[in-house]
Amino acid sequence: MSSRTSEPAAAPEDGCVSCPIAVAATRREFVRDGLLGMAGILASLAIAHRASALPVSAISTIARAGDTRTYPIPSSDGVHIDRDEDVILMRWENVVYAFSLACPHEHTALRWIDADKRFQCPRHKSRYEPDGTFISGRATRSMDRFAVRREDANIVVDFSILYRQDSDAAGWRAAVVSL
Questions:
Q1: Do the domain assignments include residue 19?
Q2: What H or E segment, with its residue span, contains residue 170?
Q3: Is residue 123 part of a domain?
């Protein structure tokens, strides 16, 4: 019978700092790696069910200026994750949203559930519509949205302005770009 402890495993005594197990990952790296794995799985499922699937892909900024990041407008409906900025760029029915990757309940990275066309928190199962509206679960509000605007064929996300639906409903509703 094995026993479990809540203490993390100690680094090897021989100082093997190059061992990936011995190197502690930051929370951001952990979330990024988990999302990349999930995006790969969901992308595989999207290929298998192309007719009804909404693609999940990685996206990167094309320009940075202070607290703003510029992304190309997604060409079709889908979930686009910027792992470096912890943001979800969502195009849904000719509207673009920029969400915080973190669930508003306990800040766990949200997942896209393609079969149900919704976001879900893997920790406590809070569920959200594609526009970020809260459906059910332990969360008490909708997904947080960043301020967004359109510039030519791009979406500019302002990371200094994050709208919470429960404290600024008007700002939250306005944080969209209609195409």
A1: no
A2: helix 169-174
A3: yes
CA distances from 167 to 144, 147, 161, 170 (A): 11, 15, 13, 9
Domains in the chain, number: 1
User: Virtual CA dihedral for 136, 45, 55, 124, nearest 10 degrees?
Assistant: 20
Greatest Cα pair distance in the chain: 63
Residue at token pair 């301020």: 147
Distance CA 80, CA 99 (A): 10
Q: For every one of its 179 residues, what pLDDT tens digit does the chain have, with 9 covering 90 and above? A: 444 444 454 444 555 555 554 455 577 776 677 666 666 665 555 444 433 466 788 898 899 999 999 999 999 999 999 989 999 999 999 999 999 999 999 899 999 999 999 999 999 999 999 999 999 999 999 999 999 999 999 999 999 999 999 999 999 999 999 99
Collect all residues with Cβ–Cβ distance below 8 Å to 16 and sequence separation of at least 6: 22
